[in-house]
Design brief:
- The chain has 359 residues and is an alpha+beta fold.
- 37% of the residues lie in helices and 23% in strands.
- It contains 13 helices and 13 strands.
- Strands 5-6-1-7-8 form a 5-stranded mixed beta sheet.
- A hairpin with a 4-residue loop joins strand 10 and strand 11.
- Helix 4 packs antiparallel against helix 5, helix 4 packs parallel to helix 12 and helix 12 runs antiparallel to helix 13.
- The longest helix has 21 residues.
- The radius of gyration is 22 Å and the shape is globular.
């Protein structure tokens, strides 16, 4: 019987990326809570927290939280609007560093990446030293820290990178996978969101160990084919290759909440253009192509609509985002209601590394 080849995978995750970059360029922010997102307007602002540093998290501030709530929890924080152009520029440089270290490489969003280093190291001790070297090089080049998980596969490596943040390094050997995962809450598994977590808890499943010990047939009865996948993941089983479909970016989106509900069509379209530009920068920065454009509109009464169009071709052009977003948005501007929020998303993403030709 042919012996299965040993794999060693690294997951590199930059620590509080946006705020860390802001602190690097503004040393006066260091040691202070820093929040990147909407303008809080002294507690009356609208919109959400994009990200925050660990100082802000001590006060209970979290990504996705309404900015008004963040202000109540931490009014003395430094509040900044996102500078996506700068973040993407730093991301590109870091990814170029990482690409040199792996047999294969897979970017996972703007601030994370997987590396397969199976042929670069002979054992986990060498993998640890390689991870330490990567951390040092990124810090020397960019003044930023990262956390790295080292494991037999992408699934466990990603969970491990989050285990000792910030500036962490966690190594999980093949024989340690089950014991490492078992005590962790089920929410730590990729693809287990709030709704799935609640369903699992209703079944008496609170930890990954509970999930691993559950009869797969019961999980399939509750969740369909995904139930079997949950069972495999809970046991730390993942054969997806670095550069494969596991965890691939499914969409890129941006939205803005207006400071005041508006009926100003020009203002809405100007905001739409800015969102399209931010998305385009990230699409190009990650060497991606898209087929579907979606707009989101939220009215003053919080009634929310989305409308999508799938194109007959792959593209990465700014004009294809902006032109189609404008067309999709137009009918919603005819309402008598004022607009509270507008958003844009691109999806059906494909890696440019795999696209040799475009139709």
């Amino acid at each position: 019987m042919r012996e299965r080849k040993r794999r060693i995978v690294l997951h590199v995750d930059m620590d509080h990326f946006f705020t860390a970059i802001e602190e690097r360029f503004h040393p006066e922010y260091k040691g202070k809570p820093v929040i990147v997102g909407a303008d809080p307007k002294e507690g009356k602002g609208r919109g959400v927290v994009s990200t925050c540093n660990y100082e802000a998290r001590k006060y209970g501030v979290k990504s996705g939280m309404p900015i008004s709530r963040a202000w109540k929890l931490c009014p003395h924080a430094v509040y900044l609007r996102p500078n996506y152009e700068l973040y993407l520029e730093v991301s590109r440089r870091i990814m170029e560093i990482l690409k040199r270290y792996g047999d294969s490489f897979e970017q996972f969003g703007i601030d994370e990446a997987f590396l397969d280093v199976s042929s670069k190291v002979s054992d986990y001790e060498e993998a640890r030293r390689l991870a330490e070297k990567i951390k040092s090089e990124i810090f020397e080049a960019e003044g930023l820290t990262c956390s790295i998980g080292v494991a037999p596969n992408k699934l466990v490596a990603k969970i491990a990178s989050d285990f000792q943040k910030p500036d962490g390094l966690t190594v999980v050997k093949e024989e340690e996978v089950r014991s490492f995962l078992a005590p962790l809450p089920v929410r730590k598994l990729l693809w287990v969101g709030r709704k799935t977590e609640k369903k699992l808890k209703d079944m008496g499943i609170n930890t990954i160990g509970d999930l691993a010990n559950c009869d797969p047939s019961l999980l399939m009865e509750k969740f369909g084919a995904m139930g079997f996948q949950y069972s495999l993941m809970a046991k730390g089983i993942d054969d997806s290759p670095v550069g494969g479909d596991f965890g691939a970016v499914k969409s890129i989106s941006r939205d803005r909440t207006f400071e005041e509900d508006t009926s100003d069509v020009k203002k809405v379209f100007e905001t739409l253009s800015k969102l399209a530009k931010e998305i385009h920068d990230e699409v190009v920065g990650q060497n991606l192509y898209f087929k579907t454009v979606t707009v989101k509109v939220r009215y003053e009464d919080f009634e929310t609509h989305t409308h999508s169009k799938t194109l007959p071709f792959l593209t990465n052009r700014l004009e294809d985002i902006e032109k189609n977003a404008r067309r999709l948005l137009q009918p919603y501007l005819e309402s008598e209601k004022r607009i509270r929020l507008v958003g844009v998303k691109v999806s059906n993403l494909f890696s440019g590394e795999k696209q040799k030709t475009l139709t």
